[in-house]
Inverse folding.
């Protein structure tokens, strides 16, 4: 029992370190080689856990070998565009200047229904507003609308928008974060006054409260309180 526990902990730590080295990506954003390595690593790591009679090194060495190979190949693809295209492929333009590129749709084995679904997830319901739609190498769809259909920004309208900075949490799930209060140069007395203004008797009645650089407060009461 103790041996199984130790082996499991070792493999778990090894997998965490491996994924950290591979980089910060969501599963849906993995490039082909990264996805292959992730699947193989999980499979190899499970073998010594399932069979205690298998030496642990038989699982560790292949995992480290795969990890080293992935790191080396990633370094080479950064330096060589041709190798990167060979291993990772290249983006596919599915809509070009408002026209669906049917040859690319067939090459990517993507149906019109699937394209419409992807567009809707981007908030696009009218395909005529799309100038370019690009299927990236990680499988995500980038949608670039025509200029007249692009959302207005402060830069375009000439408006000046203040930067309020990153909100700082002062209460999380009923707990007061004293260090963050000090960071904001606020006191417990100030906090007590602010939460009472919003109908809370104590911090335990507050689910979440944060303050940004402009002093704007976000406040959420615990369900069933107040």
């Amino acid at each position: 029992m103790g041996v199984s526990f130790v082996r499991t902990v070792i493999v778990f730590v090894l997998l965490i370190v491996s994924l950290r080295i591979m980089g910060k990506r969501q599963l849906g954003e993995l490039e082909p080689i990264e996805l292959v390595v992730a699947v193989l690593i999980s499979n190899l790591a499970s073998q010594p856990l399932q069979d205690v009679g298998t030496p642990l090194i038989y699982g560790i060495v292949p995992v480290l070998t795969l990890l080293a190979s992935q790191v080396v190949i990633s370094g080479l693809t950064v330096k060589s565009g041709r190798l990167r295209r060979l291993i990772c492929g290249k983006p596919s333009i599915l809509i070009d200047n408002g026209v669906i590129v049917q040859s690319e749709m067939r090459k990517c084995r993507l149906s019109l229904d699937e394209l419409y679904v992807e567009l809707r997830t981007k908030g696009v319901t009218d395909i005529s507003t799309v100038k370019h739609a690009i299927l990236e190498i990680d499988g995500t769809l980038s949608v670039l609308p025509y200029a007249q259909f692009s959302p207005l920004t402060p830069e375009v309208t000439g408006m000046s928008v203040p930067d309020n900075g990153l909100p700082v949490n002062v209460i999380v799930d009923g707990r007061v974060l004293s260090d963050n209060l000090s960071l904001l140069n606020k006191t417990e007395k100030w906090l007590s006054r602010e939460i009472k203004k919003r109908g809370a008797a104590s911090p335990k009645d507050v689910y979440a409260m944060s303050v940004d650089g402009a002093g704007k407060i976000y406040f959420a009461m615990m369900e069933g309180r107040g």
Remarks:
- The two ends are 50 Å apart (CA to CA).
- The mean pLDDT is 82.
- The longest strand covers residues 130-135.
- The longest helix spans residues 57-79.
